[in-house]
Write a structure and sequence with these properties.
The protein is mainly α and about 350 residues long. It has helices spanning about 5-35, 55-65, 70-80, 100-110, 125-135, 140-150, 150-160, 195-220, 225-240, 245-260, 265-270, 280-285, 310-315, 340-350, 355, and strands at about 45-50, 90-95, 115-120, 185-190, 325-330, 335.
């Protein structure tokens, strides 16, 4: 072969190689672009697909919901994906899903991803209020739900499933074993025939994620999970409108525990009577319940409400303070004090009026 021929073959080989590399690179770029936005994020993302939406329009909707990794690649997929029976509905997706997975679910109206029912477990909800919230959107009554949640055989099964549930919750003094262990959030039920157990485990799965993230910090602080959630629930009910207040209140309670004082918390008395009120009766304050932190020194038996992330972090980041008292005024301001005398002055200077109690 002549020298010129060898040069020509070499040139052809280089061109072919460039084309192959470019083509392979393009394919890899495309596949990455239609991949998951965050493969570790399985938080629910609610997406509403209106009637008459085409594939490209849906891509824009998904992008607004934070579910698209690369818009150019997504538009290409919309054109070549063969999505010819896209179905309007409200869907529940997550950022760990790839674009083809999401589009396939919309194209088939996959029942698994349809949003049928949602309910909210609010921050500071007692377990009875959680049951009421679930009962409002299901065929189960509040009593049905509480019967399952208070069933010690079922709770024992859950202890075998979840590392953070221990026999602490089965203490005879505990009013409700799962109190404080259901993570506050909005939950979407996608099952056609949900059970109380399956819904319960959705909330426990979220608590698993929240506690796993903070496990090292909880251990470093010297709390058991049960103590951590107990303190977090009281911090939540006493007032954690800001990170600063949550940490300061937690610091006050930590000081009182360290000095083997009672926590002195009225919200624990409210829990005994399954109500929320500021003007507690003398007879209520004198309750002999082990949950009455006005009378009992140290720890009460367990949590008194759901525990939001802010309260958890407040406990982990408890303020380094000398304060032993705090008082929430009628305008929501929290006043701190080192002595009972200072505390009583705060109460006298910022009293609750009848109008504050009954607006």
């Amino acid at each position: 072969m002549s020298k010129q021929g060898r040069i020509s073959l070499k040139a052809i080989f280089i061109v072919v190689l460039i084309v192959v590399v470019a083509f392979t690179g393009g394919i890899l770029f495309y596949l990455n672009g239609i991949g998951a936005v965050d493969s570790s994020n399985t938080d629910n993302v609610l997406v509403e697909i209106p009637n008459g939406s085409g594939a490209t329009a849906i891509v824009y909707i998904l992008n607004d919901a934070g579910l698209i990794k690369n818009m150019n690649c997504a538009k290409v997929n919309a054109r070549i994906g063969g999505y010819d029976s896209l179905q309007a509905n409200t869907y529940i997706f997550n950022k760990a899903m790839t674009l083809p997975e999401i589009m396939k679910a919309i194209n088939t109206g996959d029942f698994q991803y349809l949003s049928k029912t949602s309910f909210q477990l609010k921050e500071g909800y007692r377990l009875t209020q959680c049951a009421e919230s679930l009962a409002e959107v299901t065929d189960f009554s509040k009593d049905d739900i509480m019967a399952v949640w208070d069933d010690k055989d079922y709770v024992q099964e859950l202890i075998g499933q979840y590392w953070f549930l221990t026999n602490d919750v089965l203490n005879d003094k505990i009013m409700h074993p799962l109190e404080g262990y259901l993570f506050p959030d909005t939950y979407f039920i996608t099952e056609s025939d949900p059970t109380i157990q399956s819904v319960t485990e959705m909330a426990l799965d979220e608590m698993d994620a929240a506690l796993s993230e903070r496990k090292a910090g909880i251990e470093a602080a010297g709390y058991s999970i049960h103590q951590f959630l107990t303190l977090g629930s009281i911090v939540c009910k006493e007032g954690c409108a800001t990170d600063e207040d949550a940490a300061h209140i937690a610091g006050v309670f930590k000081n009182r525990l360290d000095q083997e004082m009672s926590l002195g918390s009225d919200v624990t008395v409210c829990y005994i009577f399954d109500e929320d009120r500021v003007d507690l009766k003398v007879s209520q304050l004198e309750s002999d319940s082990p949950y009455n932190a006005r009378k009992v020194s140290g720890w009460i038996p367990g949590p008194i409400s759901t525990v939001p992330a802010m309260a958890m972090d407040g406990v982990l980041n408890a303020a380094d303070t000398d304060d032993l008292f705090f008082y929430a005024g009628p305008d929501g301001t929290i006043y701190y004090a080192k002595t009972n005398e200072e505390h009583q002055k705060n109460v006298a200077d910022h009293p609750w009026t009848e109008e504050d109690l009954n607006p």
